[in-house]
Amino acid sequence: MAREVSESCLDSLLTEIVSSYCNVLYATKPELAARRIEAIGYHVGHQLSERYTMERPRFNDHLEAIKFICKDFWSELFKKQIDNLKTNHRGTFVLQDDKFAWLSRMSVDPSTEISGSAKDPENKAAESTSMHLYFPCGIIRGALSNLGIPCAVSADISNLPACSFVIRIKV
């Protein structure tokens, strides 16, 4: 029996997690807030990967695991596959989602400088948008870790709501 969570509930939860960690718990330490948000995502991704691969054989190589993330895993999470996958065949993969659901309601110029004044509303919005990306980066890292692939994951937003996730396999 499949269990689903409303998208609006998940959006609200993610917004509250980011808000709580950035504005209350670690208001003066944004790098610590980012690590904590990513850690929550890591645990979620690890558990989801465990659930989605329970009846599958292990993957033979990194590319098979990344394809699983792009197709099956992403479809379970967002009801769509990743729009584009690129690799340099040396352990770096770029997953492109042209309409990333968790950013589709945000409208911020991602080229806005984040390091400016905290009172500047555009800087706060850009910082908030970037903080929202630590959670899905953690989900991807956790899922791949569960598949036996240690990696680092970062996100790049150049044109909202498009988002690129860069996966670097650790050797």
Please tell me how large the radius of gyration is.
Answer: 16 Å
Structural class: alpha+beta
What is the residue-averaged pLDDT?
82
Helix content: 40-55%
How would you portray this structure in words?
- The protein has helices at 7-25, 30-52, 62-78, 121-132, 134-146; strands at residues 84-87, 92-97, 151-156, 163-169.
- Strands 1-2-4-3 form a four-stranded antiparallel beta sheet, with helices on one face.
- Helix 1 runs antiparallel to helix 2 (30-52) and helix 2 crosses helix 5 (134-146).
- It is an alpha+beta fold and 171 residues long.
- It has five helices and four strands, in the order H-H-H-E-E-H-H-E-E.
- The N and C termini lie far apart (38 Å).
- 49% of the residues lie in helices and 13% in strands.
Summarize the structure.
The chain is α+β, with helices and mostly antiparallel strands.
Key phrases:
5 helices, alpha+beta, 171 residues, single chain
Write the SSE topology.
Layout: H1 7-25, H2 30-52, H3 62-78, E1 84-87, E2 92-97, H4 121-132, H5 134-146, E3 151-156, E4 163-169
Antiparallel strand pairs: 1-2, 2-4, 3-4
Helix pairs in contact: 1-2, 2-5
